[in-house]
Amino acid sequence: MNQCFDVIVIGAGPGGYVAAIRAAQLGKSVACIDEGTHAAGSPAPGGTCTNVGCIPSKALLQSSEHYEHALHHFREHGITATGVSIDVAAMIARKDKVVRQNNDGILYLFKKNKVRFFHGRGSFAGSTEQGYLVHVDPLGKEVGHDIVGEHVIVATGSHPRELSGAPFDETAVLSNTGALALRSVPRRLGVIGAGVIGLELGSVWRRLGAEVVLLEGLPTFLAAADAQIAAEARKAFQRQGLRIELGVTVRSVEREGEGVRVVYADAQGVEQSVEFDKLIVSVGRVPHTASLGADTVGLEVDGRGAVVVDEECRTNLPKVWAIGDVVRGPMLAHKAEEEAVAVAERIAGQHGHVRFDTIPWVIYTSPEIAWVGRTEQQLQSDGVQYRSGAFPFLANGRARALGDTTGFVKVLADADSDEVLGVHLIGPMASELVAECVMAMEFHASSEDIARICHAHPSLSEAVKEAALAVDQRSLNS
Fold it and tell me: Total structural domains in the chain?
């Protein structure tokens, strides 16, 4: 007799494990299947985010920032540091420890919330009167078996897109997985793709001493960001030593000894050839559905491999849902989490809610970049009349005390109603400051609302208030 559950979640990334926990909190019997595995064979739930994405990259960004501060910025504070060196193996070990702590935390939360965890690969195997048959393949450790779920939530995530003619070997041609596990600092590092992943990983190894070249196919830097923010970011990164080339067309990637040779046409069409010790390829991600068994039950998947869903994450099959990277929308961990909670609540008969236009975006470089809502170029394209206010961190007392005054905050508000339409930040702790802006937009706040709220002094958050004041041309400190 197969075990039966109210809800089966396939995948334990940010979307999957949150969906499982929320469904269990709502009184459902829940099973969660995940194939993530440590080298020793133990479970590694958390998906890309926890294991080879958000969490380990932030650990390395923090370590590399400490190293750079010790080399170049301690003296500003009267601190003399001599003989500073980097132990890459120790840095990677710390990163691995942080990852393991997050893995263990998820397993603890499953136990606490009475979620039954199955370590293996989950796939559709058919249907019965009780629900859907889901096969659990323990990946060779033992014989697989089937479980039954009345509802199934697909949360299988995504994997890195390979560049044509340059498959990942994780030795010289690296995905994010290999880029987070380098055991020494490469002398020359190439990065194809100057998006979030490329910039963050390029920043890590640049701080540690690598010469980093980013090759971006688009003619515009950070095209998704507000143009003024993107221009400020590009200047900051180039001052730091990142070489950024736009409008590039990669012709070929070939192994050259232990390194890699990349042949490309630059923005003027001139062919260039450059050698790298390591090459990170960061040209997007692909929904992970190949092993899902979608055809077995007739689950609709589109041409790029994504599960087709409606605005409430329902698939074409009754009581089958899909969330996160495996469906439409931005591939962001927090977007997956919001969809996860909403779907679990819909299954329980509640009214789950996700507002896509207030999902924040963050790039954890230095300076950090964050935004929520629409950019100036989007508002102009849509013909929306708006007012803009900006405030530089150079005029913020806390930023001066921190010694980090790069960047600014910009607030965009409707010209008639004053409702905030977008907030764009580049500078210290932008990833934290954007939360206030998301909350303001969720409650349809005006720039005047933000301007009238008392912000602690001295704090970086005052820059948000000042930018809101600037919408009405009454900033107090600039």
Answer: 3
Identify the helix (H) or strand (E) that includes residue 56: helix 54-72
Known active-site residue 455: no
The catalytic position among 38, 353, 444, 457 is 457
What's the pTM value of the predicted model, to 2 decimals? Answer: 0.96
| 276 φ, ψ (degrees, to nearest 5) | -130, 150
Bridge partners (DSSP) listed for residue 274: 262
Please give the annotated binding residues for FAD, written as ranges.
58, 122, 156-158, 325, 331-334
What is the C-alpha to C-alpha distance for residues 141 and 143, in angstroms, rounded to an integer?
7
Q: What element of type H or E holds 22? A: helix 14-25
The burial of 329, by beta-carbon neighbours within 10 Å (0-12 exposed, 13-18 middle, 19 or more buried), is given as middle
> 304: which 2 tokens?
């790029």
pLDDT digits (tens, 9 = 90+) for 20-54: 999 999 999 999 999 999 988 999 999 999 999 99
Whether residue 43 is preceded by a cis peptide bond, meaning omega within 30 degrees of 0, is no
The pair of three-digit structure tokens given for residue 174, joined into one six-digit string: 């690296």
For residue 278, what are the domain limits? 173-283
CA distances from 135 to 148, 241, 285, 291 (A): 9, 50, 26, 11
- Whether the CB-CB separation of 49 and 332 falls below 8 Å is answered with no
pLDDT in tens, 343-378: 999 999 999 999 999 999 999 999 999 999 999 999
227 φ, ψ (degrees, to nearest 5): -60, -40
Residue positions forming the annotated binding site? 58, 122, 156-158, 193-200, 216, 284, 325, 331-334
Whose tokens are 């994405």? That residue is 53
Query: Looking at 302, 325, 354, which one is the last position of a domain?
Result: 354
- Phi, psi at 469, each rounded to 5°: -60, -35
The CATH number of whichever domain residue 63 belongs to comes to: 3.50.50.60
CB atoms within 10 A of CB 470: 24
CA atoms of 183 and 419, how far apart (whole Å)? 50
Question: CATH number for the domain including 416?
Answer: 3.30.390.30
